[in-house]
Structures are given as structure tokens and as C-alpha cells.
Amino acid sequence: MKTKKTIIMLSIPLIIGSVNAQNADTKSYNFTIQQAVDFAYQKQVKVKNALLDEQIANQKVKEFTSIGLPQLNSNFDIKDYVEIPTSLLPGQFFGASPGTYIPVKFGTQYNATAGLSASQLLFDGGYIVALQATKLVSELSKQLTTRTKIEIATNVRKAYYSVLIGDERMKLMIANVERIKKLSEDTKALNANGFVEKIDVDRITLAYNNLMVEKEKVQRFLDLSLNLLKFQMGMEQIAALTLTDKLSDITFQVMDVSAEKVDYKKRVEYSILTSQKRANELDLKRHRFGYFPTVVAYAAANANAQRDEFDFFDTKKSWYPIGIVGATINVPIFDGLQKHHRIQQSKLNLMKSENDLKSIESAIDLDVANAKTLLQNSSQSLDMQKQNIALAEEVFRVSKLKYDQGIGSNIEVITAETALKESQANYYSALYDALVAKVDYDKATGNSK
Length: 449
Fold this sequence. Notes:
The strands form 3 sheets. Strands 2-5-7-8 form a 4-stranded antiparallel beta sheet. The protein has a two-stranded parallel sheet with strand order 1-6. Strands 3-4 form a two-stranded antiparallel sheet. Helix 2 (33-43) packs across helix 4 (125-192), helix 4 packs antiparallel against helix 5 (198-233) and helix 4 (125-192) packs antiparallel against helix 6. The chain is elongated and about 150 Å long. The chain is α+β, with helices and mostly antiparallel strands. The chain has 2 domains: 25-69 and 124-292 and 332-444, Outer membrane efflux proteins (OEP); 71-123 and 296-331, Single Sheet (Outer membrane efflux proteins (OEP)), CATH 2.20.200. Helix content is 63%, strand content 15%.
């Protein structure tokens, strides 16, 4: 038994040291909403992968561009003729009867060839057009990265607002608990002096207990909101995050957006489809250039050697050089209408791109219209909830004053407190809806940052 106690006592410093080390490794952050978005741009896996895709696209562009650069190759070939090939010579060359053949072996057992070849594409209309399209590949990859960043920024802002709302609700909940707690203490004192009945104390106690349960729910909601924000930012869950922006610093005004004109080019989705349409136009042009000839220049320098023994590296024995320079012109004449059908496919794809642009314009119009409606409705609802919370506060103040003066009941106070609590919850729910509606409206109009 004494040994176990000794082991436990010796383990305590190690455990404490381990906990302290973990606490020392825990990172702490203090972020505004924009800093949270910037952090997500650096840490979010989706953004990282989008940037990697951008680099991959750039490498593919360079790979394709290298096709038009000089191509240089070397070769070295060694053959060991275990059986030297046999050739048949007419027998009459050697005095034999006509129609007969004499088998003769020519050559040596060992043969080697070493060479260097180079080629250069001089003209290929399809390659020239495709080279122009590589710029679109880089541009499209950047547009896809931008779209990913907009989605991440939208999610981070919504999650950030959710935490701010939860924090304010918790502050109000604590204030409500303190208020009901004070009311409960006063009611118990009045009951002790015979001024109120026991049932009045029970009512207040029940209201207090219900409020404590709601407080725990709000705390769990706040914890979940903070965890979601960390997830959207790409932050470790064990990190400590403090939000420096406050709801009091965020100004939200009812906006008149009915006359604002939609600019499709601000939407990255429209830009992506525009780039895809341009790519289809270049693809059509590339297939049309398929009727043009291609020109390739080449040169080669080789040397071969023949030996009866494997002594190719003997510098005293000769290698026999071969050199060639030339060019190949490939003129297409008839390919069974393959290029014609490719051109028709490209035309159809181009028509699809034009239809997609018209479709996205309609979708953007609908998106903006919905965002406008939600923003206007949420703005009006927020204004109404502001009025309701002011009325609820006044009702509670009057009810509490009447109760303190002995001309009101605690039922009125509890009812007023419940109404105040509901109006507070409705107000912050409306505020969150309004903030989210503003974020969605900025995204719909292409004004997200």
C-alpha cells in the first residue's frame, strides 16, 4: 500500500508537467472578422488545394509550351549476333548452275550504334492556337481559386457572426439569471415575513430553474458555434480563439437595394463560364487549323562500329559516322472527314457555352432578387424586434415596480420576464438573419471581399 502511494506521489509532478507543457503548446489567437478570413485563406484545406491546383495548371502550361521547343535525344545500341544472318547469293556468280543459291554470312558478331538527334517544330497551326489557350488555363485556375476563397470567406463571416450573437445572448442570459435570482431572494424574504404566499416563491424558483437550463443550452450553442468557426477557418480545435470585433461595432442599416443594377461580370461564376466559352472558341479555331500543313525540321548524327570481338571502347579502332539533316512537311489531304466532325463538335460545344452564359445570367438575376428580398425582410424584421425589445423592457420595469409596491403579483413579473427573454432571443435571431442576409447579398452581387 505504501509503495502505491509512493508511485502516485512521484507521478503527480510528471502529470502536472505534462499538462503544463500541453498548455504551453496551445496557440492563442485574437482575430477581427477580416483577420479570421485572412487566416482561413492560409490554413483552410480547400484554399490550399485550390492554390495547388493553380500551380499544377501552370506546370501543365509549361509542359505544353515545351512541345514547341527543340527536342534533343541520344541513343546507344549494341547487338550481339549469336547467329550471324545468312544471305543467299545466286550460285552462278561462283560458277555453279543457274537457279542454285549459295548461303553466305556477312557482317560481324558485334555491332554498335551511337547517335544524337534533334528536331524542331517549325509550323503547326493547331499548336499555335492551343498555345494561346494555355493562357486561359492559368486564368481559369485563378478564377477557381477566387471562387473557393469567396465561399470560404462567406462561411467564416457567418460563423463569426454566430459566435458574436451567441456571446451577446449569453451576456443577456446571465443578466436575466441575476435579475430572477434577486427577485427570488426578495420573494423569499417577503414570504418569510408573511407578505406573500409559498406558491409565489415556487413560481419564482421554477422560473429560475428553467432559466438556468436555458443558460446551459445557450452556452452549448456558443461552444458549438466557436468550434464551427475554427473548422471554417482551418484552425485546430484545441487552439484558443478570441473574437475582437463586437456587435456594437457592427452597423447595420436598412438598405434600399431595389434600384441597384446587376453586373454579371462581378460574379466569378460568370467569369469562369466566359473563360470556358473563349476556350471553346479557340478549340474550334484549332480544329480548323488542322487543314494546314505542319513542318518539322530534324537532324541526326550517328556512328556505328562492327567488331568480331567486344572491344567497342578500343580507341584505336574506327567508328564510321553518319549525318543527316532534313525536314518533314505533312500536308493533310483526306482523313475520312474526321476534322470536319471535330469542327462540328466544337461548334456545338460553343453553342452550349453561349447557352450556359444565358442560363447563369438568369440564375444570377434570381439569386440577386432573392437576396434583395431576404435582406429587405430581415432589415424590417430587425427594426420591429428592436421596438419589441424596448416594449418588453418597459413592461418588465413597470411590472417589477408594481410588485415592489405591493400592487402587483409575481405572475405579472414572471410573465413580463418571459416576454422580455423571448423578445431578446427574437432580436438576436433577427440580427443574425440580417447579417447573414447582407453577406449573401454581397455574394450574390459579386461584392464579397
